[in-house]
Here is the input.
Amino acid sequence: MLWETGFIEESDTMPQTVPRSGCSPPSASQGERAVPASPADLQHLLRLLGAASPPESMLHSPPNPHNKPPPPYPEDNTNNVFLERLYDFEGYPTPSPSSDEGSIPAVALQPASPYSSLQYSPQVYIKEEPNRLAVPGFASPYPLSPSGSCVSYGSHNQYSSPVPQHDEYIDIEELLKENQILQDSVQQQSYLTPKLEVEEPRDHILLRSALEDTSFQKRLNLRPIPLELGSVKMEESSGGDDSLVAPDIDRVLSMAIEQTKRDVDNTCTVLGISPDPMLWSTGDVKAWVMFTLQHYNLPMVPMENFTMDGAALVALTEEEFNQRASQAGSTLYAQLEIWRTSQGPDHHQLSASPIPTPAGLPSADDMSDDEDSESAGTSATVGGGKAKTGSTHIHLWQFLKELLASPHVHGSAIRWLDRSNGVFKIEDSVRVARLWGKRKNRPAMNYDKLSRSIRQYYKKGIMKKTERSQRLVYQFCHPYCL
DNA sequence: CAACAGGAAGTCA
DNA sequence: TGACTTCCTGTTG
Here is the structure.
């Protein structure tokens, strides 16, 4: 078991270490792309947010590097290198594109009009803290919940902020409450255009989870920007200018969409699957289902219920999802909808939205987070010299062991047949090759080339075919099998 | 037809 | 220079 996470780095017999983190953070040069939302996309997202009613386990904050949770599989913590890698990636701070490296990411709240209930100063800066925003001089009118807990999603439940309660801090829960009040008021007073109206929204749970994800702020490299949150509240309370409401909500939703899209992209990288579910193979579908179940701490479902390709999966109704995965069906269905929304054909329309980028936020032009850039980012040193993650300088045999070490994620692509003897089988050669190509930033990688590299290992004594040669079955030689 | 084997040349850090 | 990557021909099941 030692080698799964520690052997490779600890062994002095191996030619190269394997980084623990595989997903590269977005580099400064590639930046991140803000995803403005078109009205159609916003409408869709709002519908999703209102329709999707994930279980309690989805209401938990994603882990951050300051408070990393245990991997989703506590019974096999060492086997979740890739899941951990995803968390590492999510928590990776986006480097500042300019010289202000090391400065505190901040957001400025600049109300467009006088604000009666909340005491905003004309230019209020929010200093980023884990799970909390610090706003000097800000006093929320909404009491904290007795528990002081905050909603979060993922499998790791509560993350209490290390920051003590203080008037100068805005608890994220306060913001969420305010957000809910704003939304309720907006809906009651029909500030949203008919197109944006939601059919009986139960709760904007996913929006909550996106907004409270502090890594989301890091990724966006938030600097003082006029969010004009005050104006939203003002208009509903005073019956002011309706036109100011939708753009503000759009902006928030745009940021939520951005967060969702990045989560999707991260998952794509980790699983080595296409962002477009229509392109998924049967193995991709199973990998996605497994990952989603793990990520939201949902009960396992029989994988044979999802023996289908992506096109078939997309064609499933919510009822069919519920039949195949009783408790997890609705969540899987909602997640798939989000994937389709954020990565499907609408994505381009989404990116082309004319909603302006807030001042201080990186524009769409200097932000890029598509798969290619993530892969490219693996070869870049990011964050002013911070160690890179998911290096392209990894040996194939190490990479294969990484995959083998994550059976919950990659078990449908590659798995051990005889672990003690280092015998494994590639179940999905296309996917393994795709993962390898992604890691090495070689889009043209295929199994033919990958297997050629494996065969180079024969004379090096790293790998071999088993005595009774079987298709797609290989064996690590000693000590590489350890 | 896909997997397999291995030669040869090219790429890249 | 090592570790692939790319392309190739030919073989095997």
About this structure: Residues 1-175, 185-247, 344-389 of chain A have pLDDT under 50 and may be disordered. Chain A is about 40% helix and 5% strand. The beta strands of chain A are 106-109, 124-129, 132-134, 169-171, 414-418, 423-426, 463-465, 473-476. Residues 392-393, 429, 447-448, 451-452, 455-456, 458, 465, 469, 471-472 of chain A lie near DNA strand B (CB under 10 Å from a C1').
